[in-house]
Structures are given as structure tokens and as C-alpha cells.
Design a protein that fits this description.
Elements lengths: L3 H13 L4 E17 L2 E19 L2 E7 L4 H11 L15 E3 L17 H18 L3 E19 L3 E19 L4 E10 L6 H4 L1 H16 L2 E2 L3 E7 L6 H6 L6 H4 L21 E4 L20 E6 L2 E2 L6 H7 L7 E2 L8 E2 L3 E4 L6 H6 L3 E14 L4 E13 L2 E7 L2 E5 H7 E4 L4 E9 L2 E9 L2 E9 L3
Parallel strand pairs: 4-6, 8-18, 9-16, 15-22
Antiparallel strand pairs: 1-2, 1-5, 2-3, 5-6, 6-7, 9-23, 10-11, 10-15, 11-12, 13-14, 16-17, 17-18, 17-19, 19-23, 20-23, 21-22
Helix pairs in contact: 1-2, 3-5
């Protein structure tokens, strides 16, 4: 995407101004999105964005700029302006570029390059809508969406790295509203991956619509949730959002280097119940949060974060590794060329254990089974969180009694890790978007069902 002689000229110019490190991140991003409202198509949008990010490092000071132009003069001008206050005699010489294309285990077939397949995607969403509305006359409305993206990246650095990669993302969703005339409730289902539109064969429109309707109808019949401290069983898949938000971000060197994480000095210590094992893995085939190389050009890897309750690793990008001394983990990620990279999660999850879901519920005298989790808020640094339960049930004397509504789980990441006493076998993953200092990036969360012995439940009963 960028001529190698131009990349060489720009990087040499940065080093001639005294920079310790220089990097060019070139990106071409093609997007197609479709949205529906019940049985009608609301919007079909497509576009292409192209740009180049320029990163220059003086010691631990990072300077960043970007442009949509590829001319040598324009790129050198950005370098000159970024370095204006840090000029010094050259101390670093550049290395020859060694071009590499990573092996790709996420091969996509029906990509945007081959066609946007609007008609097929529209039919998928409308079929999901028909399935949802056929489930009950109380389903009053649905909203569907399908997003496909093809991201091509190329990276040059003063250390001689020259790498390129192509990433194909796809995600489809449907939400449903159920109404009985006086009250409304919602439900939803979505799935995606690092693949092309061939994913439609795996996610199934009828499953998407049926699950959205089922959840909406369950929530419509739900009773007020009791509140107070009690045990909670959190279901598989998106239940892992709590670990991601309340704990995962605290393990990124973005926060560790600033000592803004409660775990910054806990390496090697027991920070969770010994039944807890947590991983961040960028190598999982065709998963939404996977990558071949990170946005610094480093091959991705599987990183064991917690082993038998013990903190074993942080997630480190290039700058984070220099600031903390921990090794890089292929976790440097950014939303686009408009952002400098930072340490970020990929596919982050609690590994499966040996417990059975039925045994977890049977062990509860009075508590909640949060089968599906939603979004919430997290306090950076402490991991204090407040997450909504999108589908939950009241449990009494070891039996599920009735669905509950308006339930929230309130605790801190460090506290909830120690309260996990049982980890199930029913492992599942779910896709989402994660926002941080380097923008929004695709990430996967996951876990099996697990039991938290003591947590504050917010409700209105």
C-alpha cells in the first residue's frame, strides 16, 4: 500500500531528527453495513477509508500523527512537526526492512473484495425477523444488523520490520421487543467472527430470531428481582464481560505502567480462587478477537494471565514492555490509523473447570442465576463494576423459581475473583467491541458457567 522507498525515506528522516524509534502504520478499511426495522430495510451503507499513522518515540515519549496522503513530502512534514520540540543529534540507525506475511488461520471465502452480497444479508435479517415475530404475537418489533469489514494493514519500523495482513470481520445481530399492552421487554442475539459472509451457514437466521424472541418473552414474564448480598451463578459466554471489563483492563500495561491498576505489584501472587484460570489468546481460529499479527507487527500469541488463581502475566505492547520490563505479548492494538497502539485484549476468557451447572444451582439456598449478562459501568483503576443481567432467574433451595428483571451485579474485579468457588464445563465465547485509549477494537469474551459465593445484587423487589 505504501512504496518501500518512501517508507525508508520517512523513517530515515525521523531518525535523523534524533528519534529512538519510528513506525508507519498503513491501513485500508472497507465496510458494508445493513440495518433492518422489523420487515423493512432501514439502511445500507458502504465505504472505504485509507490513512497512514506516524509514530515517533523519544525515550518513553510517544508522538503521533496521521494523514490520508502517501507522498514522501507530506509524511516527512508530519515527522518534522511531531519532532519539533524534541530535536537532537541522531543516536539510532535504521535497519534494512525484512518483509513478512504471517501465516493465516482465519481464511475467509466470501469477503468484501469479492462482493458485499447485500441481497443475501438482507434475506438473512428478514428471515430472523420473521422467525422472531412468528414465535408470539407479543413480539411487536425487531431490529437487525449485519456489519462486514475488510481491514488491510501494512507496518514499517526503524527496527527493520515490514509486515502486512488482511483481516475480515463479520457480525450479525437481531434484537426483539415483546409487549403485553402495558409493559415491554427486550431480548437479543448476535454472533460474529474473523471470517467472511460464509458465517451465515453457522449462525443460522432462525436461531438468531428465535433466541431474540425467547429472551424477550422470558423478560416480559419476569418478576421484580430481590436485592442484597447473595450467591450468584453467572452463565457461559457473554458472562465473561465481567472479567474482561473489571479485571482484564487492569492486566494491560496501559494501566499497569501508570500504577493505575490494583494488580500492578501483584505478579506471582494469588489474586483469585485457585479454581480460576484465565487466558488472553489471539491465536484462536476465526474468532472475532483473533489477529495474525498485532498492530505493531508482532505475531500474536496465547497468554496465560491467571493460573490456579495466581497472576502469571500482563498484556504488554512495545511501549508498555519498555515501561514495565514485562515481555511483549503481541497485544498492541488500535482502532485505526488515527490511533497510536496500546496494550489491549484479544479473546479473553476464564477456562473451563470440572463443575456442572445443575450442581452450582443446587448449592444455592437463596440467590440468582444470571444466565445472560449485558453491559455496565466500570471504575478504571479499581475495577468497581455495575453490570446488568439481561436474563436472570431467582433460585431458592437449589431450584430455579422464576425469571427476574432489573437485576444488577455490583462488586469489584479483585473481590469477585476471590469469590468464584465453582467453574463449569459449558464453555462458550461471545463477541463484542472494547473501547480504550487506542479506540474501539473487536474483542471476544468468554467463560463457562461459574458460581460467585457472595456478591451484591441490585433489584427492585
Amino acid at each position: 500500500m505504501l512504496d518501500t522507498p518512501i517508507a525508508r525515506s520517512v523513517i530515515d528522516h525521523a531518525l535523523s531528527l534524533g528519534a529512538d524509534f519510528a513506525e508507519l502504520f498503513i491501513e485500508r478499511n472497507q465496510v458494508n453495513s445493513i440495518s433492518t426495522l422489523s420487515s423493512e430495510v432501514q439502511a445500507v451503507q458502504s465505504g472505504i477509508d485509507f490513512g497512514i499513522g506516524v509514530r515517533i518515540v523519544y525515550g518513553t515519549k510517544v508522538l503521533y500523527g496521521y494523514t490520508n496522503r502517501t507522498e514522501n513530502d507530506e509524511l516527512c512534514r508530519i515527522v518534522t512537526e511531531l519532532s519539533a520540540k524534541d530535536l537532537r543529534d541522531p543516536e539510532t540507525s535504521s535497519a534494512s526492512f525484512d518483509f513478512s506475511v504471517p501465516g493465516d488461520i482465519h481464511l475467509a471465502e466470501r469477503t468484501l473484495t469479492k462482493g458485499s452480497e447485500v441481497e443475501s444479508k438482507v434475506e438473512f435479517l428478514l428471515k430472523a425477523d420473521r422467525t422472531a415475530r412468528a414465535a408470539s404475537n407479543m413480539i411487536s418489533q425487531t431490529r437487525g444488523g449485519c456489519l462486514q469489514r475488510e481491514q488491510s494493514v501494512e507496518i514499517f519500523t526503524s527496527e527493520g520490520l515490514h509486515a502486512s495482513d488482511i483481516r475480515n470481520y463479520i457480525r450479525a445481530s437481531l434484537s426483539a421487543i415483546a409487549s403485553n399492552g402495558s409493559e415491554q421487554a427486550t431480548g437479543g442475539f448476535n454472533d460474529g467472527g474473523l471470517v467472511g459472509w460464509e458465517i451465515q451457514e453457522a449462525i443460522d437466521a432462525e436461531k438468531t430470531g428465535g433466541e431474540a424472541a425467547r429472551q424477550a418473552l422470558v423478560n416480559l414474564s419476569a418478576k421484580a428481582c430481590p436485592s442484597g448480598r447473595m450467591p450468584v451463578v453467572i452463565g457461559p459466554g457473554f458472562g465473561g464481560v465481567i472479567f474482561h471489563e473489571a479485571c482484564g483492563h487492569l492486566l494491560e500495561t496501559t494501566s499497569v505502567a501508570k500504577k493505575a491498576s490494583v494488580f500492578h505489584d501483584k505478579m506471582g501472587e494469588l489474586i483469585a480462587n485457585p479454581v480460576v484460570n484465565a487466558v488472553d489468546d489471539g491465536t484462536m481460529a476465526k474468532e472475532w478477537g483473533s489477529i495474525n499479527i498485532d498492530d505493531e507487527g508482532m505475531p500474536t500469541q496465547r497468554t496465560q494471565l491467571i493460573k490456579d488463581g495466581q497472576l502469571t502475566s500482563f498484556l504488554a505492547d512495545r511501549i508498555g514492555a519498555e515501561q514495565t520490563g514485562y515481555v511483549r505479548t503481541g497485544s498492541g492494538r488500535r482502532q485505526s490509523y488515527k490511533f497510536a497502539p496500546a496494550s489491549r485484549m484479544r479473546n479473553t476468557f476464564i477456562e473451563p473447570g470440572e463443575a456442572e451447572l445443575d450442581d452450582m444451582i443446587a448449592s444455592i439456598d437463596r440467590g440468582i442465576y444470571a444466565s445472560h449478562m449485558g453491559g455496565g459501568s466500570v471504575q478504571p483503576g479499581t475495577g468497581e463494576f455495575n453490570f446488568a443481567v439481561t436474563e436472570g432467574y431467582y433460585v431458592e433451595k437449589g431450584k430455579v423459581q422464576y425469571p427476574v428483571k432489573a437485576a444488577t451485579l455490583i462488586s469489584t474485579g479483585p473481590a469477585v475473583l476471590k469469590e468464584i468457588s465453582m467453574v463449569g464445563r459449558d464453555f462458550a465465547l461471545a463477541c463484542g467491541m472494547c473501547g480504550s485509549v487506542s479506540g474501539a477494537v473487536p474483542t471476544t469474551v468468554g467463560q463457562p458457567s461459574l458460581k460467585v459465593d457472595d456478591i451484591l445484587v441490585g433489584g427492585n423487589a
